[in-house]
Amino acid sequence: MEVTNTTPCLFSKIPVEILTEIFRIATGRSITPNSTLPSFLLDFAGVTIRAPFNFTAVSHYWRDAALSSRHLWSSLTFLTLKRVGRRRSKSFLAFVDMILNRAEGTTLSFFLRPIDLEPKQMDLYHQILDLVIQRSMDWRKIHFLATRKSMQALATVQGRVPNLQYLNIDGSFLTQADDAPFTMFSDAPKLIYFSAVQCNLDEFDIPWNQIRKGYFEDSRPHALDILERMPHAEKMEILDMNDFAVEYASSRNLVLPWLVSLHVKNKGGSEDFPIEHLTLPALHHLDICDIDISRLIHHLPPFLSRSACSIRELVIGNWTEHVGTTQWIVLLKLVPSLESLLIAGENIDDAFFHSLAKSGTDAEPSILPRLQTLEVDARAIGAGLVDFLESRAQVLKNVKLGGFGNVDVDDAVLDRLLTVVNTHQEGLLFAVPKSMKQRWEDRRRDLGLC
To answer: The whole model's pTM is what?
Structure first.
């Protein structure tokens, strides 16, 4: 006689609320209405490679739980459409429509920017966009590729995006702007984040006063004109702009009272970012890369004095010109609240770190007394850097030596550095570049520090 085990599976007794939380953890994605990340991805063939489809195949109970959790289906990311093909396009569109139906009644997030999009996939892209447009009332976040045809189709969403908070536009395929200005997003009452790549922002009617966070890459007009449109901005990234050097009226001073974080990077590093026209009293994070370093170092001190801001994180990167120790010290004395410093240039004098190490002694005020994180090029390793690390080892928590290529460090200096790091290893995270790791480990063994 065959004996059948009829003991119910424990998983079938888990309450639905807990089970969907397990689904959330398993996917590594938030399934709350406030999620900004996709809950699952589509692979090259348009087949899911993440939950929730995996959950529906476990049991009837899991299937019912997954299908009833609308937030599991509320995000779609299209990485590429290359392998869908014409034969599969109809079934693929039905698949997308099914997912949209599963998510009915909740806000939606879409990443509609397939990489390596070819002309033969354009029709499918526009058909997917047409399906997504039908659900514009539920949009929360959308990232799309702007083409002339897609902009014409999106004209129908004007006044129909009441829940849209995050808008990302890639204009790399938008070769003509005959229909500009584009007003479809002018009435988006909840919009707080706007991102544009390769766009002429003069062609877009956006509720600029609402924008709190922005990302602009290789776009027009002038960087300060972009900032001026968003008086309530709190975080801004302006990258690879081609016209930083456009003349800006010397009498103009732009005050942004809410801006906390500013990241600026220029294409090629040959142009200037006119920071002398800015006053940012709330600024905590400043990241400026690929800018004329000598001009920047000249204008940063008056900018910091004028803004009276409390900079906690400072990144100055990617330059080759020499900057004197005195100039660095004058600058860093103006940021006593600094907790994180990244200097990514290759020309840093050892005397600079000697000066930092000596500060705080002989009645001289300490420079960077609150510094916890330091990242510099490994080529800056010298006796001065070791002295500084030793003098601040009780405060520093993270030190990273970056850069590429061979790093030529004197054996005596390297041994001292290893000893300092080993002495304070419990409270200090220390990282060296890949090119230096082998020598680092060899010297550790030779010194008996392993």
So the answer is: 0.83
